[in-house]
């Protein structure tokens, strides 16, 4: 049986094979193999596994390891390292996206099944872990084509995102250059206009105030024209994009529909129990009820007078439109609804006929 996985201690920097210490050898590098996650120094890995596959030298492990399978642990806690590797391995097989499902509920169920599988692989023991491995293997074999297609689609999405990022950076650079160019042009126009104003003032022709105001209007007009042109170019670039950016938008995806909201549970099956012969009030004036309202023995336990009002009104008015005289009259008629079955109706009729014959014989 392999040795149980233990959480690595940051202070434990000793190779379990050659007992080399990082304190004495600061350049010592530890490696692990995902087959068993037992750490050992790179020197031991080169010495033991350079000639080919060999069993793990850690006591009670005996897993067959290969040199190309060793890597540097990213996390100090090897349990976290192992879980991340398992998640990466499962995500390569269960690599469907939300766009592959009709509803969000189906996608959430798919994610839940994936998490259950990961849990069994990480924390499962014996049979549960073996069943999870078999399930992962069967799913990989049965959906090999779809897995490869999803992997290729994922790579295309990554490439599209990279190209989009490059394009956005280029557009940002162009905007910065445009802003710098406009700033330089504006400064040049201001300097040119200032020189023209000074020349006109030096010549003594015209009013100085009018010349200054006219120069200021010219500067504002040119600045506004440059700003309008820049906004128009930005809108065009945002709407169409460059030639390299065409086709980056993902099209043809399934339309996602939200699952139907589950209605609250109704124990009466939709039957309307609202009273039709009366309207139940929130409160009634009654001397006995008023005494209960002020009695903490009745109200402290959460007793609701509204329930009492409902029962009292139902008992008082539940017999409306029911007349006993009509029921008694119908009870003696053959085939009346007061007799439950057809056999009872026939027996009642025969009994009456027999009684009539007996009276006639007398």
TrEMBL record:
<dbReference type="Pfam" id="PF17121">
    <property type="entry name" value="zf-C3HC4_5"/>
</dbReference>
<dbReference type="GO" id="GO:0008270">
    <property type="term" value="F:zinc ion binding"/>
</dbReference>
<dbReference type="GO" id="GO:0006289">
    <property type="term" value="P:nucleotide-excision repair"/>
</dbReference>
<keyword id="KW-0539">Nucleus</keyword>
<dbReference type="GO" id="GO:0070985">
    <property type="term" value="C:transcription factor TFIIK complex"/>
</dbReference>
<dbReference type="GO" id="GO:0001174">
    <property type="term" value="P:transcriptional start site selection at RNA polymerase II promoter"/>
</dbReference>
<dbReference type="InterPro" id="IPR004575">
    <property type="entry name" value="MAT1/Tfb3"/>
</dbReference>
<feature type="domain" description="RING-type">
    <location>
        <begin position="15"/>
        <end position="60"/>
    </location>
</feature>
<dbReference type="Pfam" id="PF06391">
    <property type="entry name" value="MAT1"/>
</dbReference>
<dbReference type="GO" id="GO:0006357">
    <property type="term" value="P:regulation of transcription by RNA polymerase II"/>
</dbReference>
<dbReference type="InterPro" id="IPR001841">
    <property type="entry name" value="Znf_RING"/>
</dbReference>
<keyword id="KW-0862">Zinc</keyword>
<dbReference type="GO" id="GO:0006281">
    <property type="term" value="P:DNA repair"/>
</dbReference>
<feature type="region of interest" description="Disordered">
    <location>
        <begin position="331"/>
        <end position="362"/>
    </location>
</feature>
<keyword id="KW-0863">Zinc-finger</keyword>
<protein>
    <recommendedName>
        <fullName>RNA polymerase II transcription factor B subunit 3</fullName>
    </recommendedName>
</protein>
<dbReference type="GO" id="GO:0005675">
    <property type="term" value="C:transcription factor TFIIH holo complex"/>
</dbReference>
<keyword id="KW-0479">Metal-binding</keyword>
<dbReference type="InterPro" id="IPR015877">
    <property type="entry name" value="MAT1_centre"/>
</dbReference>
<dbReference type="InterPro" id="IPR017907">
    <property type="entry name" value="Znf_RING_CS"/>
</dbReference>
<dbReference type="InterPro" id="IPR013083">
    <property type="entry name" value="Znf_RING/FYVE/PHD"/>
</dbReference>
<dbReference type="GO" id="GO:0061575">
    <property type="term" value="F:cyclin-dependent protein serine/threonine kinase activator activity"/>
</dbReference>
